[in-house]
Amino acid sequence: MQLYIYFLGTGGSWPSSDRNVSATAIKRGGEVLLLDCGEGTQRQIQKSALSYMQITKIFITHFHGDHFLGLP
Q1: Per-domain residue ranges for the chain?
Q2: What is the pLDDT of residue 10?
Q3: Which of 1, 20, 24, 35 is most open to solvent, judged by the fewest CB atoms within 10 Å of its CB?
Q4: What is the pLDDT, as a whole number, of residue 14?
Q5: Looking at 8, 41, 44, 66, which residue is catalytic?
Q6: Which helix (H) or strand (E) holds 7?
Q7: What b/e readout covers 33-50, taking b as 16+ CB neighbours within 10 angstroms?
Q8: How far, in Å, CA of 32 to CA of 7, rounded?
Q9: DSSP assignment of 20-63, as one string?
Q10: For residues 36 and 6, what is the distance between their CA atoms, to the nearest angstrom?
């Protein structure tokens, strides 16, 4: 089974026009794990090959806004 890593955001504490704040998705089979969910992550997921319905777990590394303010 292949493992895919999607870098949804690699920027600093503020999003910019070309980089989103922290968010990484790991896809294996039909399961997607989301590591951090900064602002704008939903938009980045829509732009990727991922589906919201595949996300089974969300991990937040720490409680700075740029790592969790994208949660609904």
Answers
A1: 3-68
A2: 92
A3: 1
A4: 79
A5: 66
A6: strand 3-9
A7: ebbbbbbbbeebbeeeeb
A8: 13
A9: -SSEEEEEETTEEEEE---TTHHHHHHHTT--GGGEEEEE-SS-
A10: 12
**In tens digits, what is the pLDDT along the chain, a chain of 72 residues?**
899 999 999 988 878 778 889 999 999 998 999 999 999 999 999 999 999 999 999 999 999 999 999 998
The H or E element that residue 8 is part of is: strand 3-9
- SS3 of residue 70 by DSSP: coil
Question: Do residues 6 and 28 make contact, with C-beta atoms less than 8 angstroms apart?
Answer: no
18 is catalytic: no
Which SS3 state, helix, strand or coil, does residue 14 take?
A: coil
